[in-house]
Amino acid sequence: MELHLIRHGQTNWNEERRAQGQSDSVLTELGIEQAKTLGARISAVPFDALYCSSSVRTRQTVAHAFPDWEKPVTYLDTLREIQMGEWEGRLYAELEAESPESFHHFWQEPHKFDVPGAETFFQLQSRALAAIRDIYFKHAGQLVALISHGALIKTVLAHIEGRHMAQLWTPPQMHNCAHSIVCVDAEDNYRILQYADRPYDQ
Questions:
Q1: Predicted local distance difference test score (pLDDT) of residue 202
Q2: pTM for the whole thing?
């Protein structure tokens, strides 16, 4: 299976530097344009299926990136962003001031991130990989687009690269509407072809 991993477009909470997690934010005008531009760029790719996080921002991204898609889109809660617990909806500046250690863990030592009600990045990674395995068994040998979130996609790519979770945020950055491509086989072997719009040559 060739799996195209796509992050959603810019949201109002991205712009405000607010923790989103599984709470719902909406695309900005820029986010809509990012989705449309991505859609034009990949319009010739003959996808067999579209899978999407059930969040509003990913649903909007699909609507603008795939306006002519005629088959059903499968929306999954398992493709939603990391659950951030009591952080959701809060400004990052506030979180940094109130919880400097946890804020540092999130961005600098993600393997240590642990706040009340939140998932760890390890739990997020396990959820994401399980979802991809399920998709593979339905679409082996096919072309599939998966529209999701930055942290979720980064954990998948970190797994493929064999990176420790401490290195999760290693560049390249998973920018809005970043497009990555991986190949998946029946033995759970993965190969990265493209990472955040860049050809992968490692």
A1: 63
A2: 0.96
Residue 15, domain extent: 2-199
> Cα–Cα distances in Å, from 165 out to 19, 121, 128, 160?
20, 7, 14, 12
118 C-beta neighbours (distance < 10 Å), count: 21
CA distance 79 to 83: 11
**Distance between CA atoms of 189 and 178, rounded to whole angstroms?**
23
In CATH, what number is assigned to the domain containing residue 34?
Answer: 3.40.50.1240
Pairing of strands 179-184, 2-7: antiparallel
Distances (CA, A) of 147 to 97, 100, 123, 131, 164: 32, 31, 19, 13, 24
pLDDT for 201: 79
Q: Cis omega before residue 172 (within 30°)?
A: yes
What was the pLDDT predicted at 187? 85
Q: Which tokens is 69 given?
A: 């898609």
**Which residues of the chain carry a pLDDT beneath 50?**
none
Phi and psi at 134, nearest 5°, equal -60, -40
